[in-house]
């Protein structure tokens, strides 16, 4: 029997499962559509995509499914300040550039995430759900999203952030526990203050807001889903579990690294992007995150732009030691399978847990 919540009913889902936005190529149209067709909610992680590529990705998803899907962007961020001396950062990554046959690195342009242009095409993407991370959205953006009838979700790592998002007008809050892979969404305090585990964070947020809460961080199987629902969450958002799906767009070396990793082999790093993110420890992370790392890492998104050519080359050459292997602490539970099979397995496992608990606590 499908697990239904108020949130899943509102979004037309048969399972309380959301595939996390996997910005950077992980969430291919094939993956997003397969997740949707299986009764869950697939997401396009569009934060790094130029407007034309967002249009193409959304069109490709719509060609494969008529079910609701979501789109995700980063909240607008202030431009990074001036860099007193970029040479330590360039010197730190130069050996890796040389190892992969790339020309010496140069200071990247500050760039522009072009949020307004991205938002314009996201509104016309056909997505039923819009989510964001790294902060709150401008009131004008929220009004535009709501004006299109899109369901709006924001990411919080603390109770205070969840309250701020509700006040801003979101329809649901995604609580990102410290176990989660990828970038930390903390925006109202230093990220260290947002390192609250999923088990502790979800019920406190549920008690503090009136909108539905979506649990994320370390959830990899039906036991985690059942636990999140028991804590008061209306659904779960899962990222690492989908990265090893057949349809996921990450390099094979990335998938193999997840399948080989153990729960203690992930840590937070600024090495790849300049912003704290959890990934599997590799040689690049270890070398760049030395004691003097502060001076040798550019702020986001400059560091992200600096390491992008290196990561692209590493993906082509199958060099996992130079990839940003974003993954959560539940890596040992990862499996290789298709997205539809994953959703079916998660549903079966969740129902089995619920039945077992019902038997344990049934009146004698």
Describe what you observe in this structure.
The protein is 40% helix and 13% strand. The chain is an alpha/beta fold and 364 residues long. It has an eight-stranded parallel beta sheet with strand order 1-9-8-6-5-4-3-2. Strands 7-11-10 form a three-stranded antiparallel beta sheet, with no helix packed on it. Strand 10 and strand 11 (277-280) form a beta hairpin. Helix 2 (29-37) packs parallel to helix 3 (51-64), helix 4 (87-99) packs parallel to helix 13 and helix 9 crosses helix 14 (339-360). The protein is globular and about 70 Å long. It starts with 5 loop residues before the first helix and ends with a helix.
Main β-sheet: number of strands, strand sense, barrel status? 8 strands, parallel
Q: Quick one: overall form?
A: globular
Strand segment tally: 11
Following the backbone from N to C, one meets helices and strands in this order, namely HEHEHEHHEHEHEEHEHEHHEEHHH
Percentage of residues in strands: 5-15%
Poorly predicted runs of 5 or more residues: none
What strand line-up does the widest sheet have? 1-9-8-6-5-4-3-2
**Radius of gyration using CA atoms only:** 20 Å
Percent of residues in helices:
40-55%
Distance between the first and last residues' Cα:
25 Å
List the total number of helices: 14
> Structural class from helices and strands?
alpha/beta
| Mean pLDDT, all residues | 95
């Amino acid at each position: 029997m499908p697990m239904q919540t108020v949130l899943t009913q509102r979004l037309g889902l048969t399972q309380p499962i959301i595939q996390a936005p996997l910005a950077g190529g992980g969430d291919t149209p094939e993956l997003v559509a397969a997740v949707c067709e299986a009764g869950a909610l697939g997401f396009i992680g569009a934060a790094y995509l130029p407007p034309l590529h967002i249009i193409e990705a959304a069109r490709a998803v719509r060609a494969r499914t008529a079910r609701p899907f979501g789109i995700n962007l980063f909240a607008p961020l202030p431009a990074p300040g001036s860099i007193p001396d970029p040479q330590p950062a360039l010197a730190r990554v130069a050996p890796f550039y040389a190892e992969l046959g790339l020309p010496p690195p140069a200071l990247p342009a500050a760039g522009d995430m072009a949020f307004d242009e991205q938002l314009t095409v996201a509104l016309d993407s056909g997505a039923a759900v819009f989510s964001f991370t790294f902060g709150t959205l401008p009131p004008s953006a929220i009004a535009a999203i709501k004006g299109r009838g899109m369901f709006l979700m924001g990411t919080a790592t603390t109770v205070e952030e969840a309250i701020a998002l509700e006040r801003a007008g979101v329809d649901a809050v995604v609580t990102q526990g410290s176990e989660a892979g990828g970038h930390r969404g903390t925006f109202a305090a230093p990220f260290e203050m947002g390192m609250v585990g999923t088990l502790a964070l979800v019920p406190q947020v549920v008690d503090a807001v009136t909108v539905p809460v979506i649990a994320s961080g370390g959830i990899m199987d039906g036991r985690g889903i059942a636990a999140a629902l028991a804590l008061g969450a209306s659904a779960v958002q899962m990222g690492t579990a989908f990265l090893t799906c057949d349809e996921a767009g990450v390099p094979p070396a990335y998938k193999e690294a997840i399948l080989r990793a153990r729960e203690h082999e992930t840590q937070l790093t600024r090495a790849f992007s300049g912003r704290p993110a959890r990934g599997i420890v590799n040689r690049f992370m270890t070398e760049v995150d030395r004691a003097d790392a502060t001076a040798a890492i550019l702020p986001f998104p400059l560091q992200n732009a600096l390491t992008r050519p290196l990561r692209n080359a590493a993906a082509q050459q199958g060099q996992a030691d130079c990839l940003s292997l974003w993954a959560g602490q539940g890596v040992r539970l990862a499996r290789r399978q298709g997205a539809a099979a994953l959703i079916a397995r998660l549903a079966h496992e969740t129902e089995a847990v619920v039945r077992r608990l019902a038997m344990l606590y049934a009146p004698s």
